Amino acid sequence: MNSQPVSPQPFRLLVIDDDAGAREYLDALMTRDGYQVFLAASGEEALGGLSESRPDLVTLDVVLDGMDGLETMRRIKKRLPDVPVVMLSGHGHASTIVEAMRLGAADFLRKPFEAEELGLAFERALETRALREEVEQLRGQAGHSAATEMIFGSDDGKMLEAREVAEQVADTDITVLIRGESGTGKEVIARTLHRLSGRRTKPFVKVNCAALPSELLESELFGFEKGAFTGAQKRKLGKFEFANHGTIFLDEIAEMSPGLQAKLLQVLQDGEFSRLGGESDIQVDTRILAATNRNLEEAVASNEFREDLYYRLNVVTIHMPPLRDRAGSIPILVDHFLRKFGEEYKRPIESLEPSTMRSFLEYHWPGNVRELENMIRRMIVLGNEEAVLDEINGRVKTTTATESDTIGLDQIGIELANGGSIDLKTIAKTAARAAEKRVIAKVLEQTRWNRKEAAELLQISYKALLYKMKDNGLSHGR
Question: What is the three-class DSSP state of 249?
Answer without folding.
Answer: strand
